[in-house]
Amino acid sequence: MANYETLIDEMVELLLGDDPDAPVAWAKEVVAGDTEAIDFFNEVFTPAMAAIGDKFGRLDIFLPELIDSAERAQAISNDVLAPIFEAEDGDTQMSRGKIVLCTVQGDLHDIGKNMVSLMLQVNGFEVIDMGINVPPREALNRAKEVEADILGLSALMTTSQPYMKECVELRDGFGLKENFSIIVGGAPITAEYTAQIGADAFGKSAVEAVEKCMLLMEQRAS
Ligand code: B12
Question: Domains of the chain by range and CATH?
Answer without folding.
Answer: 4-88 (1.10.1240.10), 97-221 (3.40.50.280)
